[in-house]
């Protein structure tokens, strides 16, 4: 595997974690949303990641002979929570039903923050790997100068 392919693997991980963080922030922002255009409360979303092939844009330039390509990260799906809303008694709320209950999304801010920290750490790990590859390429170029 070439160093350029390693950069593509790290880039795919960074892209996947960015989308995951974006989805988590959307969940947090809508944790009190009781009415959506579809009707009912906001549905919590979860990103599904999987291992997948990553194409290196540099492989054609340097004519690398790769056996099977590189395995990186890809987003396969974004799932919505299928549970009914969490009912809270608020008879004066505009979205209250006949019994006075309002449906809220099933979102735990503590869980979402832990997931956001995890996505942030994974993004940092991919950044560190990308930086290490960049340093290796730089040192390789310096060795060739001699």
Question: What would you say this structure looks like, in words?
Answer:
This protein is an alpha+beta fold. The chain has one domain (3-145). Helices cover 47% and strands 20% of the residues. The strands form 2 sheets. It has a two-stranded antiparallel sheet. A two-stranded antiparallel sheet has the order 3-4. α1 (3-29) packs antiparallel against α3. The longest helix has 37 residues, at 109-145. It is elongated and about 80 Å long. The two termini are 25 Å apart. The model is unreliable at 59-66 (pLDDT under 50).
End-to-end gap: 25 Å
Report helical residue fraction. 40-55%
Strand order of the largest sheet: 1-2
Low-pLDDT residue intervals, each spanning 5 or more residues: 59-66
Helical region count?
3
Gross morphology: elongated
Number of strands: 4
Average of per-residue pLDDT values: 87
Q: Please indicate the count of domains.
A: 1
Strand residue content: 15-25%
Provide the structure class.
Answer: alpha+beta
Q: Outline the biggest β-sheet.
A: 2 strands, antiparallel
Please compute the radius of gyration using only Cα atoms: 22 Å
Order of helices and strands: HEHEEEH
